[in-house]
Structure formats: structure tokens, C-alpha cells
Amino acid sequence: MARTSGSHSEITGPRLRAAAQALFARHGYAAVSMRRIAAEVGVQAGALYNYIPDKQGLLFELMKSHLDELLAAWQTLPKGVGARDALEAFTRFHVRFHLDRPDAVFIAYMELRNLDPANFRAIEALRRRYETVLEDILRQGAAEGAFDVADSKHAAFAVIAMLTGVTTWYRDEGRLSRAEVEDLYWSMVRKAVSA
Amino acid sequence: MARTSGSHSEITGPRLRAAAQALFARHGYAAVSMRRIAAEVGVQAGALYNYIPDKQGLLFELMKSHLDELLAAWQTLPKGVGARDALEAFTRFHVRFHLDRPDAVFIAYMELRNLDPANFRAIEALRRRYETVLEDILRQGAAEGAFDVADSKHAAFAVIAMLTGVTTWYRDEGRLSRAEVEDLYWSMVRKAVSA
DNA sequence: GTCTATAGCGAGATAGAC
DNA sequence: GTCTATCTCGCTATAGAC
């Protein structure tokens, strides 16, 4: 089957998402034009609309697929039984997952304001599900007496904020290895919730 | 001294900064137009340029004055002598200061990407000075044996990220008082760096 | 599936009257 | 100091040829 010259459906879609993710993370959704994305992909702006409904739909798909992947990755992770082991697993998973996807993380946290109301609600629900994972671990550990956490929900917010902050300073060329970064955060999280 | 009708230099300037701060925090710098700010102030867009050189200068002034105020407020705070007391003072100060200025905080963290290179360097230097305050407290405490912190710099990043996260969930109408929120964060910070 | 061309709109910033 | 009017530019999104 001959294919029309200039037809690249299998590669333009992924390239579009990759270019948009990189540009949105670097400059912000509102500051990046469709023309700029198209130039990065190597097509004209109009051609992008074969793959997305509009710019807003592109942002939503990037954020939704990131959070879907985050939840799926956690659920398939082999875990121990006790709350302490679960907390260590969560801490190391969160640091590792976020360091592997700095652009997607940046967008998921910074571009909530630019979502349409309906899209915002969908993304917030996914984020809330992830926060609840940690909240449940902390609550279980507190019930077992392994942790001293008066307010599981707000403690979960605090821990997630601390862990996610790693993306603002970590660089692969830096002094610390990823394993050392995991250890550093696990040490602080373990003590912060300890009895 | 008669004043020209329609002349309001003393109030338009502050109103411009207040309107810009609220709108930038809510919708993002790139998504807010000068016309929208002018409408909020109650003047035409052209009149704004009597007070600012351009939109970029407006953003820079908002961010710089916020960080100047942050550093000045810390420096005039009465403090104890030991590292433990200094850490508690810093924690409570940071939470209180940030809860009082949610819009300014939001802009200072989210709009770095939209600063011109020279402006970015100036803002980053101020932020770095503030991080160093906490870093020095942690280093001193580690030297005294009061804290167990292997890496003062990255521990400071982690603590600041955790504390600043309070602005993402705290609401005045919520269940917790500000004093309770301060206590919650101080409890976690104290343990996280404890020996 | 991609192209060129463009409709339709709103942006930042300036000029000059009052 | 603020107004109206406007310059110039870039934006999202679509239409229709290939």
C-alpha cells in the first residue's frame, strides 16, 4: 500500500505530544503557540488539528495521561504489608517516578489554572486519588502505633509537597545519585511521621 | 491645589499592582492581558503605562517586592540563640508569612519562567538568600548535635518545599486555625531533622 | 495527512487631544 | 493622568487544494 508523500500519522502524533510537553514545561501553556509546537514537530500549524481537537484538549490529554500513568505505576508496584514498608515504598516510588518525568510533573502542577472547569475537575479527581494513597498509609500506620500523625490528610499533603519539590533542584549531572536522593528523602519522611 | 479631573496618581499605582497580583495569581501572567488589568483598575489600558515600563516590568516588580519583604520581615524578627529555637522561629514565620500572602507566593513560584533572563537572575538571587537562611540554621544545628542532617542544602530545599505547600490547601474557612497549622508543620519539621 | 492561505480576533504598546 | 484611536503583530482555528 503506497502512502501519500508527507503522510506520517504514526509518528506525528507522538512527536506532537512530546514537543508540547517540553515547550509547555519550559515556557508555560499560555506562552506557547501552536505555531511554535508545529515548528518543533516539523509541520505547519494546521496539520496539528488532525491529532487534537484544540489546544485545551492537548493540555488535558498530557495531564490526564501523566496522572493515569502515575496511578497505574503505583498499583502494579509490589509492596510489603506493614505501614512502614508501604511508606518507604511510596516515598521511593514518588521520588523515582517524578525524577523520571520532570516535564510532565511540572505541567501537572503548574497548568491547573489553564484547564477548563470540566477538565479541571477530572484532573483534580485523579490527583485526589493519589493523595488518598498516602493518606491511607499514614492513617493505617497511626492506628498501628507505628507513626505519630495527628492529621493524616494534611500530613499527606505536607509529605507530597516535600517529595515533589525534588524536581526543582535535582539534576542528573549533580553531586547526588538518584539512590542518594531517595535515601535523603526517605530519612526525612520516616522521621517526620515517626512516633 | 486644584487637581485635574481624572487624575489619581496616588491610588491608581497601588490599585494597578493589587489588580495585577490577583489576576496573575488566578490566571497566570501570560493569560492576563493589560486590558483586563485596566478594566479591574477602572482605567483604560494606555493609562497603565504611566506607572510601569511594560508588562514584564510589572511582573518583576511584584516578585521583587515580595521577596524583599520576605527577607526584611525575617531579619527584623526577634530570635533566640540556639539552632532549635531558630528552626522553630523560621518554620512558624514561613508558614505565617506565606499564608498571609497567597497571591504573591503563587506568583513568586509559578511565574519564574516568564521572567526575562536578567530579571530571572535577580529574583533567583533573592530566593537563594532566603534558602541560605534555613540552610545555615540546619548546618549550625547539625554541628551542635541538635539535628541529624547529612546535607544541609538539600534538607533546606525539602523543608521549604514542605512548608510552602501549605498555601495549596489552607483556607481561612477550613477546619484548622493558623496556630494549629503552624503546630502541625513544626511538629513534622522538628522530627524530620531530629537526631 | 499536510500544505497554503486566511478569517477573525485580541494582544502590547504608543500618539496626541484634553 | 486619562482618554480615544490606532499601529503592528501574533494568536487559534478552519477551508480547500493536493
UniProtKB/TrEMBL annotation, chains A, B:
Q: PROSITE patterns in the record, alphabetically?
A: HTH_TETR_2
Coiled-coil annotation reads none
Q: Where is the HTH tetR-type domain?
A: 10-70
Q: What keywords appear on the UniProt entry? A: DNA-binding, Transcription, Transcription regulation
* DNA-binding listed as a keyword: yes
Start-end of DNA-binding region: 33-52
* Protein name (database record): TetR family transcriptional regulator
Task: Name its species.
Answer: Rhodovulum visakhapatnamense
